[in-house]
Design brief:
The modification 4-aspartylphosphate is found at residue 53. Pfam families: GGDEF (PF00990), Response_reg (PF00072). It is a single chain. The chain has 616 residues and is α/β, with parallel strands linked by helices. The strands form 4 sheets. A 7-stranded mixed β-sheet has the order 17-23-22-21-18-19-20, with helices on both faces.
Length: 616
């Protein structure tokens, strides 16, 4: 249906005459007496046609035509004047008028000019509608193609990157981030791009927390941060959250309603793609497992590790690679038979599988060697895992059954990206070097694993008449003998300075002695330690005057004669391993000190067990 016609003339008679003529032919008419009123009406209501007198006070017909066509270049205008000569007609056409009529206007001429103008307006509307429909069809076709691509790929790494790329494209966003639900039910940051700084992005979000109400609606929502408007887009499948996308820095300065609509459509397909990708990964894993142990094969593990290396490089993350070897498995096979050898391998894999996370991957590299990949795990965490792994293996019934006849020589090594290397071969090489160090360690050469803490202390300290330690040139330095009286205090002060230099480094420090005092160098050195100090520090001994300390945890051991006769420092961190144990006598101080990681780790583990201290 055609829109109304605006009639503009300061002559009331003409306004009424023109309105009556047009009304008889079924047209709706709005009549005003001057150009100013006409502009106000045109601002409120779109008119298909404007019929205006040329000569009017204020804004005349030519000026009104120019102003109207500034707003809408296609506005149809018919000019009416008492006298139109060739010059007047030329001026009318130059002003943009579609036609010009002379007063008194003949009804037939007026209706004919109006019909021609309205027909042109209708054709332009139809052409604009077809153009918009074609553009909308092309846009939806393009969106459809993008959606199909998201459900046609099963590679999760590719898919996560593609999701934020496609969402950015359809929403004209310069920056995007994506959190995907992990096996523990947390939304974990998996991909980001654009102008975002990773340090300001949350690594994990709980979908059951403050986000729950928003996610339940399954609709995109807008928020504002310090820089710009942010569009959040949930990825949902059958009412279950799969992921959450964040889009920011829109090119136009703001997000439009069509952006939210298109993002919702794309997100629905993306969620299906992510869910299918996870299912495909699960199926791939089932088909790539060793039949005997259910561990993955080396081919899958190597491919998985290469993807983890790419993610770590791309997003500045860290992960750890662990290797375990049953050094005497051939001996078990010869002495006990193939059945016991298989039982030992199966038991070790089962024990490791019980303590790994859903995101961790374990593989069987050979009959006696296994690999583990621990995402988001630093070197200190990897060392703690090696300890837990060995303890878990010793508790496994199948392993205990085999070890009742012949103990297993299980050794583990760890390396961390990028600290120890930036490709798979470098990390494996570093793991094997650390395994060699453990094989050459005093811990293994003296068979210290089964000794309680204080028995091991007595063995390591020995006496002046004890035989020399059986050291290996590959092992880390270890010494026993007379030590300086000031060494205990100097080491505490140096360790305190190191912790203050790098408060973010994780580690464990145990300082033990007859008395826990506030004037101990470690206590005074860490008095101004920051609240985010990552290392855990414990003082063991009899209470004297230390009630509380911002960085230290006192463990009061009243009446323990063994502690009162010894002083020790046990320090294990991402970058250091050191132990000092000393016994003060009448003449000189006798001590043992080492940087052998296996010995330090073993002493700490036994100290924790001796006094029921919580492991890290």
């Amino acid at each position: 249906m055609a829109g109304p016609i605006l009639v503009v003339d300061d002559d009331l008679f003409f306004r009424q005459l023109a309105s009556d003529m047009l009304a008889r032919h079924g047209h709706r008419v709005v009549a005003v007496e001057n150009g100013t009123q006409a502009l106000e009406e045109a601002a409120r209501t779109p008119f298909d046609l404007v019929i205006t007198d040329v000569v009017m006070p204020g804004v005349d017909g030519f000026a009104l035509t120019a102003r109207l066509r500034e707003r809408d270049p296609d506005q149809e205008v018919i000019l009416v004047s008492h006298r139109l000569d060739v010059k007047g007609s030329e001026m009318a056409l130059r002003s943009g008028a579609a036609d010009c009529l002379a007063k008194p206007v003949d009804e037939t001429d007026l209706v004919l000019a109006v019909d021609r103008a309205l027909e042109r307006a209708a054709l332009r509307r139809e052409r604009a509608q077809l153009r918009d429909e074609n553009l909308e069809f092309a846009r939806f076709h393009n969106l459809h193609q993008r959606c199909l691509e998201l459900i046609s790929q099963s590679d999760l790494e590719w898919l996560q990157e593609r999701i934020i790329s496609e969402l950015s494209a359809v929403c004209d966003a310069q920056s995007a981030a994506l959190w995907v639900l992990d096996d523990r039910g947390d939304l974990v940051l998996r991909a980001y791009r654009g102008l975002l700084d990773k340090q300001f992005l949350t690594e994990k979000m709980n979908p059951e927390g403050p986000l729950a109400a928003r996610l339940k609606d399954a609709q995109p929502w807008l928020a504002r941060d310090e820089r710009s408007v942010v569009l959040y887009v949930p990825l949902m499948v059958s009412g279950e959250i799969v992921g959450l996308a964040q889009l920011s820095d829109p090119l136009a300065g703001d997000f439009r309603p069509e952006h939210s609509r298109d993002a919702r459509v794309l997100a629905d397909f993306a969620a299906v793609g992510v869910k299918n990708g996870r299912r495909m990964m699960a199926l791939q894993r089932l088909g790539l497992r060793d039949r005997e142990t259910a561990a993955y094969n080396l081919s899958y593990f190597t491919d998985y590790a290469s993807k983890e290396i790419y993610k770590a490089r791309r997003y500045g993350r860290t992960f750890s690679l662990l290797t375990f070897s049953i050094d005497n498995l051939p001996l078990v096979r010869v002495r006990q038979g193939a059945a016991d050898a298989k039982k030992a391998v199966r038991g070790i894999i089962r024990a490791l599988s019980k303590i790994i996370r859903d995101s961790d991957v374990i593989a069987k590299a050979s009959d006696q060697e296994f690999y583990l990949l621990l995402p988001e795990t630093d070197f200190f965490g990897a060392m703690m895992f090696v300890r837990r792994a060995v303890a878990a293996v010793r508790e496994e019934p199948e392993v205990q059954d085999v070890e009742s006849r012949l103990p297993l020589a299980l050794v583990g090594g760890a390396s961390t990206f990028p600290k120890d290397g930036e490709d798979f071969d470098e990390l494996v090489h570093r793991c094997r070097r650390r395994m060699d160090e453990r094989r050459a360690s005093l811990q293994r050469r003296l068979m210290l694993d089964g000794l309680p803490f204080w028995d091991e202390v007595d063995l390591l300290l020995g006496t002046p008449n004890s035989p020399k330690l059986p050291l290996d040139e590959r092992a880390e330095p270890s010494r026993r003998g007379k030590v300086a009286d000031v060494l205990f205090d100097e080491l505490q002060a140096e360790i305190a300075r190191e912790l203050m230099r790098d408060p973010g480094s994780r580690g464990l420090l145990y300082v033990g002695g007859p008395e826990i005092r506030s004037d101990l160098p470690i206590a005074s050195g860490l008095e101004s330690a920051p609240p985010d100090l990552s290392s855990r520090i414990y003082l063991l001994g009899r209470r004297v005057d230390l009630e509380s300390h911002p960085a230290l945890t006192p463990v009061f051991l009243e009446g323990d004669e063994r502690v009162s006769r010894h002083e020790f420092i046990l320090w294990l961190s991402e970058s250091a391993a050191y132990a000092l144990i000393q016994r003060r006598g009448r003449g000189a101080t006798w001590g043992f000190h080492t940087s052998d990681t296996a010995v330090v780790d073993g002493l700490i583990s036994k100290l924790q067990a001796e006094y029921d201290l919580q492991p890290y």
